[in-house]
Structure formats: structure tokens, C-alpha cells
Amino acid sequence: MSGNRYLLDTNAIIALLQKDPNLIRLLQSAEWVGISVISQIEFLAFSGLSEADRQLFEQFLLRVEIIDLSSHNRILLKQIISIRQQYRLKLPDAIISAMAVQNLAKLVTRDVQLNRVTELTVVDW
């Protein structure tokens, strides 16, 4: 096993479902791939989503771990608050970033502002 753990941001999920060859190549070495429940909601809430896209996404969800947000996970909540306050990120970005940190995963994203989060390893494919 490579030890590569990746949490996919919403823009990476979209690129993967569009069969981006660089992203596919990157994830072939993954030991673990996850997404945040926030990304799941963002994707499914997209107004231009076709039924074919929705079905493809549902198949994708069977192959990754979905990281939930729970009020019982006090460590995660503290990490979210810290990242949000320190870097002044939008709440969804702070949640996704903290989930990557907590799961010892690299965050796969094209969102360059997340490079400022020093606790996080960001991967742009």
C-alpha cells in the first residue's frame, strides 16, 4: 500500500466524474479515498445536475467513504472552528479542510485559497 489518503473537494469530484485523466492517475495510488458530506450535498444541490450525473454520482459514492459531520465529534468541531477563524474561510471550506486533517488525508482541490491552511496538505492534480 502507498499510504496515500485523499479527501476530494467538490471540484475534484466533478473532474473525476468527467474522467479527468490526471486525477484518475493520481487516485490509482490511493490507499483511501473519501469525501465530506458537505461535498455530497454541494454536488447533489447543483441546479444543472442531470439524472445521468446523479446516477453516476450514486455509483461513485459506493466506492468512497463519506465523512459525516456530527456534534459528538468534538475534536473535529474544534478543528473546524480553528480553521474557520484562523484562515477566514467559508464554513464549507473549513469543514472539508478539517475533515481532511482529521482523517490524515491530502485534500484534492483546485481551490487555491486552501493552500493557506498550514495544517493541510493540498494536492492540485
Secondary-structure element string: EHHEHHEHHEE
Low-pLDDT sequence parts: none
- Terminus-to-terminus distance: 21 Å
The backbone outline, from C-alpha atoms, is: globular
Largest sheet: 5 strands, parallel
- What structural class should be given to the helix and strand makeup? alpha/beta
> What's the overall average pLDDT, rounded?
96
So how many helices? Answer: 6
Strand content: 15-25%
Explain this structure:
With 125 residues, the chain is of the alpha/beta class. Helices cover 48% and strands 16% of the residues. It has a five-stranded parallel sheet. The chain is globular. The two termini are 21 Å apart. The relative contact order is 0.21.
Structure keywords:
alpha/beta, 48% helix, 125 residues, five-stranded parallel sheet
